[in-house]
Design goal:
heterodimer, A: alpha/beta, Rossmann fold, GMP Synthetase, Chain A, domain 3, 2 domains, twelve-stranded mixed β-sheet, four-stranded mixed β-sheet, 26% strand, globular, B: alpha+beta, VC0802-like, Alpha-Beta Plaits
Chain lengths: 439, 144
């Protein structure tokens, strides 16, 4: 930990910009965004025309609430590129995350978008005290998931030594942390704990490594976990928030005072709405986070419903940054689970089960955290159609189901065949998800 | 061919007790049984006099149950009698999925070995002309 360096900013002008100036910048960018999507995204143009809205009707931030919401369903309906506001020749990168059913949510970035993203990530890293002398080990997965490349580009922009370790192979990760003198770790909080435990097993103490800070996110975690990670790894743990629809990691992160996560308001307008009525809630209220991306070209979204429950604090932060702070999300307003950083909807598992028998069997998803790793078990009631007298046949059935779940979600699961009626039903309806994780 | 009941049972205390309990209530005698087990579940295989009646009883309890066709072979209680049967299977190039044996004072044979053969239909075709003392379904039905 190096408290002396933590007062620095990556972009002092923007990060400490006064509220009035920041709002003026947002307003100007909002007008640009509305014009952009009205011209280039037929889906948005139709939505606006349906309610008789012209781009000229959106002049100030107060007009934002006139615009319709964007939901995950809209993204599914326009799969794969229907929401892109730039011609494909200007798109330089695609990322994707899981959708509510079989289809993925696809996002696109122009060259400028990739740069904006790196800028936001660099601000987050500097917020942890990192600079160009830092060595940043990125153990988020590289690929369609935004975690790996998102953190990577930010670390490079900062000029830090960037170590693209990706996820997995924990002993090798620890060897690199030790031998390369890694100072900043980027991964999911549960993986950070797992690294800590493996380090202990390998007989390496926090004093043997040079870790100073960690940007941990992509899944829910608690203050207890934060302290545990800090103790095990000997670093200061920061909470980073992001979702691929909006940008990826770096939408928000906490500063050294850890009183909420600063949302980069020059890039995103954030609102809190009532998850049931959609009504914008007064400052300080708890509700659903809604983002409007005002600094994106390829895949800009208007009032995107994140389903994450949080609250906003516009109070002045001791760190000097003027950007609003969102509280650590306390839950979801839908049934999405985050398992090992991957978004999982029960409906995705149901769609796999639909294909294996004549009728969808009764099932239950049990999520637990064992040795700091999320374990998903899918219990399936064995009907006569699924049942075979041969052990081989039954084991094959388990393998087929877990294989298909893995190909849809990208994560492994345990499949357990159980007797009919053994899954508890309440009021005739089965409870689909049991989350035993104590966060 | 004889009828066998296959029941899906989870590996947890009391499951077998429930299955045998409901057969007991229905007054059904179990002549033979075996269990194939995995980490999480087992397949209980049963030979009873009236397989269809037993199946109905178990199904009513909400258990997953199927009837499976298996092959019964009569043996005398002396060294080499099982060996001679297995030798015939080998000659006919027939593999065994699983097997178990039982004996009872209430039948005319010393013992019966139950086989589930791989690719059973073709296997039985191949075994035609081999000297194997297959038993009839009636033998099981008439057991007390």
């Amino acid at each position: 930990m190096n408290e002396a360096r933590t007062e620095k900013y990556w972009n002092r002008t923007v990060e400490t910009m006064g509220r009035e100036q920041l709002n003026a910048l947002q307003e100007e960018r909002l007008r640009g965004l509305v014009n952009r999507v009205y011209t280039h995204v037929p889906y948005y143009r139709d939505k606006m025309q349906q309610i008789g809205l012209q781009p000229g009707d959106i002049k100030t931030l107060a007009d934002l609430k006139k615009l319709p919401f964007t939901t995950k369903t809209d993204l599914r309906d326009t799969y794969p590129f229907g929401m892109f506001a730039s011609p494909m020749e200007d798109i330089v990168r695609i990322h994707a995350s899981s959708g509510t059913t079989g289809k993925q949510t696809v996002v696109g970035y122009t060259y400028r978008d990739v740069d904006t993203w790196a800028e936001c990530m660099a601000r987050c890293l500097v917020m942890t005290g990192a600079d160009k002398d830092s060595r940043v080990q990125v153990c988020y997965g590289y690929g369609l998931f935004t975690g790996g490349l998102g953190a990577h580009y930010g670390a490079e922009k900062l000029g830090a030594v960037t170590i693209p370790a990706s996820s997995g192979n924990t002993q090798r990760q620890i060897t690199m942390i030790k031998d390369f003198g890694t100072t900043v770790l980027c991964c999911t909080p549960s993986y950070a704990l797992y690294i800590g435990e493996t380090m202990r097993e390998m007989g390496i103490s926090p004093d043997d490594v040079k870790l100073e800070a960690g940007c941990f996110g992509a899944e829910p975690w608690s203050e207890n976990m934060r302290r545990e990670i800090e103790r095990m790894l000997g670093l200061k743990a920061y909470d980073i928030y992001g979702l691929s629809e909006i940008m990826g990691p770096s939408v928000a992160q906490d500063c050294q005072y850890q009183q909420g996560l600063h949302v980069w308001e020059d890039c995103h307008i954030v609102e809190i709405v009532d998850p049931d009525t959609g009504e914008v809630l007064p400052e300080g209220s708890t509700g659903e986070l809604v983002f409007t991306t005002i600094n994106k070209e390829g895949f800009p979204l208007i009032r995107y419903r994140t389903r994450d429950i949080s609250a906003l604090d516009y109070g002045v932060c001791e760190c000097g940054r003027s950007h609003v702070r969102m509280m650590k999300p306390s839950g979801r307003s839908d049934d999405m689970l985050i398992i090992r950083g991957v978004n999982v909807f029960p409906s995705q598992i149901e769609s796999v089960l639909l294909n294996i028998g004549e009728a969808t069997p009764h099932y239950q998803i049990i999520v637990d955290r064992v040795n700091n790793l999320d374990i998903m078990t899918v219990e399936i009631e064995v009907s006569e159609t699924l049942f075979s007298d041969h052990v081989k046949g039954m084991e094959q059935l388990e393998k087929t189901i877990s294989g298909q779940i893995e190909s849809v979600l990208g994560i492994t699961s345990n499949v357990r065949l159980v007797e009919p009626k053994s899954i508890t039903r309440s009021e005739g309806k089965a409870k689909r998800v049991i989350d035993k994780r104590k966060l | 061919m004889i009828k066998q009941l296959s029941v899906f049972v989870e590996n947890k205390p009391g499951r077998l007790a429930e299955v045998t309990g409901c057969l007991s209530e229905a007054g059904i005698n179990i002549h033979a049984l075996c269990i194939a087990d995995t980490t999480d579940f087992g397949i209980l295989r049963l030979i009873v006099a009236d397989a269809d009646a037993a199946k109905a009883v178990l199904k009513q309890r909400g258990l997953t149950v199927k009837t499976t066709e298996v092959v019964g072979v009569a043996l005398t209680h002396k060294p080499g009698s099982l060996y001679s049967v297995l030798l015939e299977l080998e000659k006919a190039d027939v593999s065994i999925e699983y097997m178990y044996a039982f004996t009872s004072r209430s039948m005319e044979y010393d013992a019966i070995v139950v086989f589930c053969l791989a690719d059973q239909k073709n296997a039985l075709e191949k075994l035609k002309g081999h000297r194997i003392p297959f038993i009839d379904a009636e033998v099981i039905k008439n057991m007390k």
